[in-house]
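[recover] target loaded
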């Protein structure tokens, strides 16, 4: 089950712009950003 998370429109806009610039879907962009963020939280010194 996916969490229902309120994301500010300004942040969503940045993700949408990045997705368009890098030829990704919104799902791909959010997935990559969340995975990257989790990797940095789990292993902050390895990035």
């Amino acid at each position: 089950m996916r969490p229902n998370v309120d994301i500010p429109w300004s942040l969503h806009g940045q993700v949408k712009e990045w997705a368009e610039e890098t030829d990704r879907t919104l799902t791909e962009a959010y997935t990559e950003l969340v995975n990257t963020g989790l990797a940095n939280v789990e292993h902050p010194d390895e990035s």
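[recover] notes: The first helix runs from residue 9 to 21.
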